[in-house]
Structure to design on (357 residues):
């Protein structure tokens, strides 16, 4: 990304001004599409060069319209925060990307083949580990599936795993892998570690697993198939994103740091996370946490999506154009064999429009 190393937008002043002037109408169009797709409420944040616009639609907390301070569960976008914490540790010299996964003695580390699972394997989904621990769902509440899971359960579950592939050889998305990455970085203190190493330095005050009273009053209610559902809670695998909250305002601030690392206190770590580490296919390369996909015109979109039982989110950006989009909705959705999740499709399409402006 040498051409965008400074984070400066490559749009002409006239074109950028024209695009910036229509941002509210453009964002509103995509919010309406999110509501049409079944979301009770939606918030979208956009960065376009020097301009930022955040807006919401639908019915938010207390019956008012949602806005940039409305709280949603973030889901797996949290993995990019965990990867940033790893990158900070690497930059500080306290670990290496090729360091083997080490956990306390009672937690057996699964293995397959001669090479041990490393930190970079976990951060790029190439560990060979399954998506979830084999004993996670036994006895789980379907509406809050991680809440019952303890460190003792994790120790038992790890002993039942044989990785599907040798580490570093194949991409397979793993919530378990990122959960273990968090535990390897800060055993039994993952949430505190993420706050100290990532969210606090970046000023992401509402990006937390601890729902403060003032946040609770601003929180959207999650939905599944049109019905309200409870939030997810998790202590053991929270580094994967199973219990993190955030707002569009915080995510816009986070995306600005991704677009302009030189202006961030975490410059070196952010640059490290965005660097491609593994090629998973023609349409996908993987950095630390982030996914990188080609778009038309030779552009590269860096992105991650997320979801819990009642929320869906997506964030994407393009360093070359200086554009970024985050969309947060309070309903669960999933992709089908033929179509992406609506929140993902809308996020990517809006970024494409901004890039083409």
């Amino acid at each position: 990304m040498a051409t965008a190393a400074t984070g400066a937008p490559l749009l002409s002043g006239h074109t950028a001004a024209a695009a910036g002037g229509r941002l509210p109408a453009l964002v509103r169009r995509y919010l309406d599409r999110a509501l049409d797709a079944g979301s009770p409420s939606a918030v979208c944040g956009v960065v376009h060069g020097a301009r930022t616009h955040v807006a919401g639609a639908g019915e938010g907390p207390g019956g008012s319209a949602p806005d940039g301070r409305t709280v949603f569960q973030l889901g797996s976008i949290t993995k990019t925060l965990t990867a940033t914490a790893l990158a900070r540790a690497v930059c500080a010299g306290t670990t290496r990307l090729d360091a083997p996964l080490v956990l306390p003695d009672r937690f057996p580390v699964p293995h397959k083949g001669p090479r041990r699972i490393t930190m970079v394997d976990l951060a790029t989904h190439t560990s060979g580990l399954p998506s979830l621990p084999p004993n996670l769902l036994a006895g789980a509440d379907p509406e809050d599936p991680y809440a019952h899971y303890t460190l003792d359960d994790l120790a038992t579950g790890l002993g039942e795993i044989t990785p599907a592939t040798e580490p570093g050889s194949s991409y397979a998305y793993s919530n378990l892998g990122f959960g273990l990455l968090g535990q390897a970085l800060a055993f039994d203190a993952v949430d505190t570690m993420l706050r100290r190493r990532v969210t606090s330095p970046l000023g992401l005050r509402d990006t937390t697993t601890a729902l403060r009273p003032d946040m609770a009053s601003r929180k959207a209610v999650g939905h599944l198939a049109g019905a309200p559902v409870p939030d997810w809670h998790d202590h053991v695998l929270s580094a994967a994103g199973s219990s993190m909250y955030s707002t569009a305002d915080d995510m816009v601030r986070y995306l600005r740091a991704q677009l302009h690392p030189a202006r961030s206190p975490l410059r070196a770590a952010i640059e490290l996370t965005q660097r491609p580490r593994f090629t998973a296919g023609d349409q996908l390369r993987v950095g630390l946490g982030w996914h990188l996909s080609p778009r038309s015109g030779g552009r590269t979109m860096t992105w991650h999506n997320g979801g819990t039982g009642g929320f869906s989110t997506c964030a994407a950006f393009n360093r070359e154009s200086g554009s970024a989009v985050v969309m947060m909705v309070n309903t669960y959705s999933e992709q089908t064999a033929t179509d992406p999740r609506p929140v993902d499709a809308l996020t990517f399409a809006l970024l494409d429009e901004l890039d083409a402006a």
Remarks:
- Residues 2-356 form a domain with the Beta-lactamase fold (CATH 3.40.710.10).
- The chain has one domain: 2-356.
